[in-house]
């Protein structure tokens, strides 16, 4: 069979790979994947400003590479590893990562590597070199003097690899931005690789060891709601985050990166977290189209764990940051997501759920009525004049019905809706802490006793007590009222 060669032009193809959608955080993560796969226990990455001509280094103590069987040269080939049988701990996927991740940020990628029992070797994938020589797919052999520090470093260890980026044209242009970027990358990596850090792998930015940050707060921070195995290579777990009013400290306000807040606050971190062979692919959560983000689900987290043996099902993209839920798994995942959202809503909703359910058979149990204004296509919030507490004031002639109606209509009409919305956008967890009060005040308790005694003139004590517990705010304080009334 006769065929024709259509080898692509290297300069054009490699320039195209620079725009596959990697962020700097994702690019560094891809390099760390390779280090972990190579068995590294210590991984160090460094950012050097170098007077505005920055370069990047990643060093590991993995098994390294040699020129035996062209091992180092083959690592530069696009897609060179895609078809190999992978170890269950292998974080690679397409055989593109080192190249595409590096070129997404810089125009020159140099690999310096040493395998135990072999000499240190090095090669560069340099876009300018390829463009200048115009002679096909050629790696550059860098001058030893240009990478002497890296060579000396590897000469002192038994094995390891160093990745170096030069002509880093997509680095920030200002030093302050460059420094700020380092902090953002550290945070991102501390989440993506938190399980590996917890297992004893040291990942360091210069001399600083990263602390792990799981999207599921540990100990008292969350509880496991449900666990399901959907097949031998994938399992689901649903977690509910502790309600903000029970946090030991205000994690949303602290300047320290933490598992409650992470990147964009508690509310925006709700969603599905997909792990592939213990590497977190989706550090910023999101519901992947299963449900919409909303206040009701903000305490819910669903974790999906799958092995690299199931890559063909999960449609992992080349940046290894997105995976699509297989059709056959969607019903089980949807069911768990909905259940997690309902549990989140239970935690957010004010008061004991038993008390909330008790309200349903009674009319006028809530102080605020919420209706829809069809004329303006808007929600309408109004204080209920028929609430038992208000009716008592009227019946005792403490205030006329006409006056209190005017008062309540004025209060309802001036509800600061826009400010409530603005505050919720800025810091929603502060709204969750609105109802932190665990007990009625003495004044409120005195008022409850007056209502109770009044109602006892109309019915039995048990019936009067049940009546008192049938409306706000007293429905939330059953234990306190029982003790006060000896009921």
What does the model show?
- This protein is an alpha+beta fold and 487 residues long.
- The protein folds into three domains: 10-209, Histidine kinase-like ATPase, C-terminal domain (Heat Shock Protein 90, 2-Layer Sandwich), CATH 3.30.565.10; 219-348, 2-Layer Sandwich (Ribosomal Protein S5, domain 2); 354-485, no CATH class.
- The chain contains 18 helices and 14 strands.
- Strand 3 and strand 4 (121-126) form a beta hairpin.
- The protein is elongated, with a radius of gyration of 31 Å.
Provide the descriptors you would attach to this structure in a database record.
Ribosomal Protein S5, domain 2; 18 helices; five-stranded mixed beta sheet; seven-stranded mixed beta sheet; 17% strand; alpha+beta; 487 residues; Heat Shock Protein 90; single chain; 34% helix
Q: What is the CATH homology-level superfamily of the largest domain?
A: Histidine kinase-like ATPase, C-terminal domain
Task: Give me the count of strands.
Answer: 14
Number of helices: 18
Strand content: 15-25%
Helix content: 25-40%
How do the strands of the widest beta sheet line up side by side? 4-3-5-2-1-6-7
Class per helix and strand makeup: alpha+beta
CATH topology of the largest domain: Heat Shock Protein 90
Q: Can you summarize the main beta sheet?
A: 7 strands, mixed
Enumerate the spans where pLDDT stays under 50 for 5 or more consecutive residues: 350-357
Q: State the end-to-end distance.
A: 95 Å
Mean pLDDT: 83
CATH architecture of the largest domain: 2-Layer Sandwich
> Quick one: CATH class of the largest domain?
Alpha Beta
Q: Domains counted in the coordinates: how many?
A: 3
Q: What sort of overall outline do the alpha carbons produce when their principal axes are compared?
A: elongated
Output the radius of gyration.
31 Å
């Amino acid at each position: 069979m006769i065929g024709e060669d259509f080898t692509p032009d290297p300069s054009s193809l490699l320039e195209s790979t620079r725009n596959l959608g990697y962020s700097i955080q994702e690019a560094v993560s891809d390099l760390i994947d390779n280090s972990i796969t190579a068995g590294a226990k210590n991984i160090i990455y460094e950012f050097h400003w170098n007077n505005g001509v920055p370069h990047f280094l990643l060093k590991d103590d993995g098994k390294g590479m040699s020129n035996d069987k062209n091992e180092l040269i083959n690592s530069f080939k696009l897609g060179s590893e895609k078809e190999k049988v992978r170890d269950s701990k292998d974080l690679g996927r397409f055989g593109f990562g080192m190249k595409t991740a590096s070129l997404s940020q810089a125009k020159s990628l140099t690999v310096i590597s040493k395998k135990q029992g072999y000499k240190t070797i090095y090669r560069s994938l340099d876009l300018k070199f390829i463009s200048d020589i115009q002679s096909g797919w050629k790696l550059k052999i860098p001058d030893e003097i240009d990478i002497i520090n890296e060579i000396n470093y590897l000469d002192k260890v038994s094995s390891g690899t160093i990745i170096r980026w030069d002509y880093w044209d997509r680095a920030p242009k200002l030093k302050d931005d460059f420094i700020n970027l380092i902090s953002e990358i550290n945070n991102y990596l501390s989440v993506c690789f938190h399980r590996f850090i917890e297992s004893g792998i040291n990942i360091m930015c210069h001399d600083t060891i990263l602390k792990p940050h799981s999207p599921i707060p540990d100990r008292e921070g969350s509880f496991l709601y449900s666990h399901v195995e959907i097949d031998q290579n994938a399992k689901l777990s649903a977690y509910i985050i502790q309600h903000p009013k029970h946090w030991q400290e205000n994690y949303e306000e602290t300047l320290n990166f933490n598992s409650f807040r992470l990147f964009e606050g508690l509310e925006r971190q709700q969603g599905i977290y997909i792990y592939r062979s213990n590497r977190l692919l989706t550090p910023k959560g999101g519901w992947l189209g299963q449900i919409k983000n909303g206040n009701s689900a903000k305490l819910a987290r669903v974790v999906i764990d799958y092995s690299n043996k199931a890559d063909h099902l999960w449609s992992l993209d080349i940046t290894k940051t997105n995976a699509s839920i297989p059709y056959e798994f969607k019903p089980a995942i949807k069911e768990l997501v909905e259940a997690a959202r309902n549990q989140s809503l239970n935690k957010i909703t004010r008061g004991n759920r038993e008390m909330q359910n008790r309200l349903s058979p009674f009319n006028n149990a809530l102080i605020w009525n919420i209706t829809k204004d069809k004329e303006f296509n808007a929600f309408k919030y109004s204080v209920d004049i028929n609430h038992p507490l208000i009716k008592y004031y009227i019946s005792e002639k403490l205030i006329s019905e006409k006056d209190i109606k005017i008062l309540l209509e004025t209060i309802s009409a001036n509800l600061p809706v826009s400010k409530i919305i603005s505050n919720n956008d800025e810091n929603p967890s502060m709204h969750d802490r609105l109802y932190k009060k665990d007990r009625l005040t003495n004044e409120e308790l005195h008022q409850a006793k007056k209502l109770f005694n009044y109602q006892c003139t109309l019915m039995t004590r048990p019936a009067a007590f049940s009546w008192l517990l049938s409306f706000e705010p007293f429905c939330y304080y059953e234990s306190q009222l029982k003790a006060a009334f000896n009921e």
